[in-house]
Amino acid sequence: MRIRNLAVACALFALAGAVLAQSFAPFVVKDIRVEGLQRTEAGTVFSYLPVKVGETMTEEKAQQALRALFATGFFRDVRLEVENDVLVVSVDERPAIAQITFVGVKEFDNETLRKILREVGLSEGRTFDRSVLDNSEQELKRQYLSRGRYAADVQTTVTPLERNRVGISITVVENEVAKIRAINLVGAQAFRERELLDEFVLRTPGWLTWYTKHDQYSKQRLGADLETLRSFYQDRGYIDFAVDSTQVSITPDRKDIYITINITEGEKYTVSAVGLDGQMLVPREELEKLLRVKPGEVFSRLRLTESTKAITDRLGNEGYAFANASAVPQVDKEKRTVAFTIVVDPGRRVYVRRISVAGNTKTRDEVVRREMRQLEGSYYDASKIQLSKTRIDRTQYFKDVNVETAPVADSADQVDVNFTVEEKPTGSMLLGAGFSTVDKIVVSGSVSQSNVFGSGKFISAQVNSGKVNQTYALSYLNPYFTVDGISQGFDVYKRKVDASSLAVGGYSTDTLGGGIKFGYPLSETDGVNFGLSAEHVKLGLTPTSAASYVNFASIFGNSYTYGTGSVAWGRDKRDSAILPTRGGVTRASVEGSAGGLQYYRFTASEQRFFPLSRTVTLALNGEFGYVHGLSGKPVPFFKNFYAGGPGSVRGYRAFSLGPQDAAANVLGGTRKITGGAEILFPMPGAQADKSLRLTAFLDAGQVYGVDQKISFGEMRYSAGLGLAWSSPFGPLKISIAQPLNQKKGIDRIERLQLNIGAAF
């Protein structure tokens, strides 16, 4: 028997980069036999061999075969032998990974870690490779470093199992998260260090950093903070400001991080002159009005950027998508002044080739596209693109809306406009609760979906079986009943109100009704709505009912069937419906009834937003209501206005303000005035988190009876703090208010009010 050894060990093969084989004469292969296989199919080995039965085997082909089989990663050792012109391929398979287990892991869930390991080539069922396992250890350590756990230790244990398999156990000692213990600014003289550090996202541990994680070091966050610091100085005239160096050090126990930033402030500059040059295409006077930088003022990079952006946006409205306005400075270091010449280059006029929408996994494309005012094939118009973005935002189906303009390759006069949206839960399951020292908890709930099956249609089902309100209602609205934006909807409801435990007390109503409604857009910001409805109301009284209630029922009975018609107008000029900072909303409506009840009602409301800074917004709101009877009939007391509680005057019990009878029953009124001011600001330590907002508010309001004169001296006031959080389990609103001029023995106080719900 003739046996020729054609290979050496795998280790030598890998180190030398070539196959060493014993010299032999070529031979014709009579047969091929594979030995040592346990899991790998013989056909897999045959597919890597450069010869077949009947072909001539040479040393060169033997080397090719060994290289190919080792490269598969399936085998620890491969040998080629010849027995009577039969090629024998002997292999030693690598073991398979039977299972991967984790010990001591709390920072990540196991499935997340398995996904991370799969990306580096380690997973159950794959062939075990020690180098892949080493890479996996390093990747897990990097993942823990990204979470601030610099002291995390990762150890792996490989256990042989039967049938050439192994089990891998990954043990992690996570240790504590490293915290930023100090951030030092060296070289700051013009501003207090505390003032500068307040601009940073990174910070030392605080009362909310357990949630924001801003006390954990991140290279990206530090880079953003340094740019914020640079903007802070340059917005205040320090053109030559520079960050000289940064040092980030960690203590030997890897628990504490210290950051030192060395800066040079430079001198403070004022603006001496601002001019325009270049091809402007629109009247110079119009562009000069867009300049935010004025001679004699302290230089501000922000105002200069706003000026150049306003100019490019104005040219963009004319179709010049790639207009450029660059500011050329002339610095006088002796006088500490700087002059700017803004050079305008409009570029070529372009038109939009294609508009795309991405990110709408649930919402249909047509729901987004019908809000667009920029058309494909028409000239680019920056104002229409911005209006499209605003209208998409106002649908409130998305938590974020972004738009980008991309040039078309090989075409100088075409662009593509790409909208990217991030969907949010548009359904809600709301739970409301009120608390006071004398009243029990009142609970209510509703289920609604404002984007049914991604169609943009709204449907709501309300079921409330509380002690006061029992409601069964179904509402539907199609905002695009026609292609030009006419909306259509309906409401069907059955409501029973037992007011015996409320401040109004002593009566109940059982209402069955329904109606239809239509909306018509007047402009991009204005619209008018029309509605028709019919109701049947049964009134129930108790021995403790107010005398005025009893008198009304004795004259007009206890059962009423009537119809109502309404007209409402609205204007929405907010810059965003998600997080408004400027603009406002104005609404006014008139409602009239005929039949068993006859009255008309007028309401008007206004809400305005004013940016006080980059993160702080002032919101002002006011509402006025008036109701009057028709045909000599009084206003039904259950159609009166009421005030107090959330959405009205916080700190006072809901529906508790206004006229009262001798038994202290709140009767409501025919006129209502409410208003307030709110300062909206981010949670300290969570400036970048749009889901978390704090408010400081001042509320005012009162309700006046038919025989009362409107007197602002009778208004009730309250002040307090509120929190709004779009939490993972749903919207949460809390307010704590202190009444400022309550009257003892008359006003009902409710300082803490809470609304909590679940979104889906």
Global mean pLDDT: 85
CATH architecture of the largest domain: Beta Barrel
- Give me the side-by-side strand order of the main sheet: 18-19-20-21-22-23-24-25-26-27-28-30-31-32-33-35
Show unreliable segments: 1-23, 432-442
How large a portion of the residues is in β-strands, by DSSP E? Answer: 35-45%
Overall outline: extended
Q: How many helices?
A: 13
User: CA-to-CA gap between the ends?
Assistant: 76 Å
Q: What's the count of strands?
A: 35
Please tell me how large the radius of gyration is: 37 Å
Total count of domains: 6
CATH top level label of the largest domain: Mainly Beta
Instruction: Tell me the helix content.
Output: 10-25%
Describe the sheet with the most strands: 16 strands, antiparallel, barrel
Task: Tell me what the structure shows.
This protein is an alpha+beta fold and about 750 residues long. The protein has 13 helices and 35 strands. The protein starts with 9 loop residues before the first helix and ends with a strand.
